[in-house]
Amino acid sequence: MPEVKVLAVRELTAYLQRLMSNDGRLANVWVKGEISNLRSPASGHLYFSLKDPAATLRCVMFQGRSRGLAMGLRDGLEVIARGQVAIYPRDGVYQLYVAEIFPAGTGLASLALQELTARLEREGLFATDRKRPLPLLPRRVGLVTSPTGAALRDMITISRRRFPGIELVLAPARVQGEAAPRQLALALELLAKRGGVDVIIIGRGGGSAEDLSAFNTEMVARAIYACPVPVIAAVGHETDLTLADRVADRRAPTPSAAAEMAVPVRAELEQRLESLAKRARRGLEHRLELARARLERLTKSSGLDRPRQELYYRQQYLDSLEQRLLASWERRSREREQGLKLLAARLEAASPLAILARGYAVCRRPGGGPPLKSSRQVLPGEKVEVILREGLLQCQVEEARE
Amino acid sequence: MPGEEQLTFEAALQKLEEVVKALEGEGLTLEDSLAYYQEGIRLVRLCRQRLSEVEGKLQVLLLQDGEVVTRELSLPGGENHGT
Predict the structure, then answer these.
(1) Which homologous superfamily does the CATH classification assign to the domain defined by B4-81?
(2) What's the pTM?
(3) What ipTM was reported for this prediction?
(4) Inter-chain touch B10–A157, beta carbons under 8 Å
(5) CB-CB neighbors (< 8 A) of A188 in chain B
């Protein structure tokens, strides 16, 4: 039986490293290509790729070498780089350790894009003062993306997590390839006209610059600009801003982030409502407390005759108020949300009727008018009426004390 | 109140915020406070209604022979998968 030697990954990698370092040509190569995915983290090292239509080469330029670099490196720039090709064992990739870098004239595609960008900017397509606010709670959210991509799946998942049952309408479109720009523009138009949506997300999954071209076309930029409802662009690329990103009302780093912008968290809206209801209750309670304090100072009162009909009228008014409150909350109690039931009970407990039921009363002039707040508002001998939880008292003031 | 049915969640919430601010302020009579409070309750109810109106539909808009068609969208693998 032949002996099989099993290598650890590091052993195989070390073998390949030796192979490459023994090759004199790889130690000092000149490569021409267009920069893409340029990143310069805090470390000061530069990371990017050099690419041409057929291939991509990962590059790193360490801080000592990149410092003092006169030319501004940026994506799309065509350069000639000199350096050593070696393996980066942790990622299992080969890359060019750049020693020097030179401009080789700006890439053609990049030049054309620059020209288009400048033109659309002059036309005002990117103007910040035309960015529209997103609706707090959209009736429906429109999605323009590939029906098969991960972007759609992510947007649905996030939307449903934040607001279960939120309505989503997809207008499918290819996001790359020759047909993409026209399909994207058409999908936007369809959604806006027929989708009944309040906000639209146009997006795709992450990827490198090669796949972004559809979002850098004039056709897509203009379709976003013409869209009557706010558009969120989620083209999923961190370093390059596409034209779609710049025209859109908002841009998101990923489709998931776009869904977070478009769809509110239902529980948070409920909390906000609850807090408002609580504040309303406190405001009213405070006012009733003030009224109570004044009423307590009106110590003396005595019952007086008054047509019973008036009494019934007051009673009926209170009853109908109570019924309306109860009816509205009873209806809600059948709702699914438990939180609302609690809220309803608390509001009910805090209603003015409940406070009257606790033994407080409202004092005012006979036949209506605002509640009396000061003993100075009446003179001895004047008549006042006192509304209780049940019924009404007609009283004559014997004495009005400060 | 006419037009009330069309009030969006956002508009109703905004009104509710105004009502609450008025209730928290000093300018209202007791009777007005009661009326505002009732209005507040009504708006809370309306907001809750808007929140529960969603039908949970997942649709797809398609162009077929020049006509726009709406279909229910079904995803392979069901809806309850994680990210």
Answers:
(1) Exonuclease VII, small subunit (1.10.287.1040)
(2) 0.56
(3) 0.78
(4) no
(5) none
